[in-house]
Amino acid sequence: MACTICGNKTYPGLFSWHTQCGSCGYEAAALSVAINQQQLHETVNEVEREVSLKALRQDNFRTILGHARRHAAPTARTLLEVGSAHGWFLETAAPHFDVLGIEPDETVGGKTLARGLPVRLGYFPEALRPDERFDIIIFNDVIEHIPDIRSAVKACHERLNPNGTLILNLPSSRGFFYRLSKILAQAGLHGPFDRMWQKDLPSPHIHYFNTDNLKALLESEGFDLTFSTELEAVKAAGLRERLSHVGHVNPLKLYFQYVGILGTLPFLRLLPSDIIVCIFRKRPA
Ligand SMILES: [Zn+2]
């Protein structure tokens, strides 16, 4: 099979559903998406998931908004977030931009809508009117879930105003935890690797990029990379909830895990992060 990014040969990965490009390092998963299917939804405790992720996400969203304000055109006013989920980024960005979100998950999007945030239920770009254009389009932990990623990138190009900015916040295949999960999988422990890909969740990851192969994809679709950075993947805030979310764990064991990870946080900052943010500018026609 040819790599969807660079066209070179791809190789079987660690499991039957996983492939990797021998040339650019892009990784893909043949996992199926089942958003809005009630049965699968019940396997995820949305409330716990929300609490466990909120502190880290909100902190990262403030950082991303800062980058957006520095790197978008000074005249940028309208911002579209694809996959706006609980609306946390929309809330962060609303004081600075005229915001709109699109969310395919009706349960999650419906709740955000009920909180009074501007969200349309549906998919990008179908949920937009034919004439709608934006100065900034952002995907927070979303682009890696979209099966036909090239079409999504083309749609971004079409839906951005001249000089428009595309911001992608996504997991990195160079991240320390992702690489560690691969080593563990090779040693026979596949749990962490499955979790990295969000296997068996309603919307698993379909792609794993690094900054270089992501840049190659975007450059081939009329974008130039203007800025890239890493975000902290682990934070003390919400860590205890994140750990307890994993399953029914003995409280004492949980406490030692918590203290153990807390102690390694300064060290982890020196390693490649599992979260990257890349900012692209629409190339003039
Ligand atoms: Zn490739």
Automatic annotation (TrEMBL):
Annotated keywords = Methyltransferase, Transferase
**According to the lineage, what is the superkingdom?**
Bacteria
Methyltransferase among keywords: yes
Q: Which InterPro entries would you find in this protein's record?
A: SAM-dependent_MTases_sf
Methyltransferase listed as a keyword: yes
Which CDD domains does the annotation name? AdoMet_MTases
GO molecular-function terms, A-Z: methyltransferase activity
Q: Which GO terms describe its biological process?
A: methylation
Mind telling me what this protein is named? Methyltransferase
> What is the scientific name of the source organism?
Melittangium boletus DSM 14713
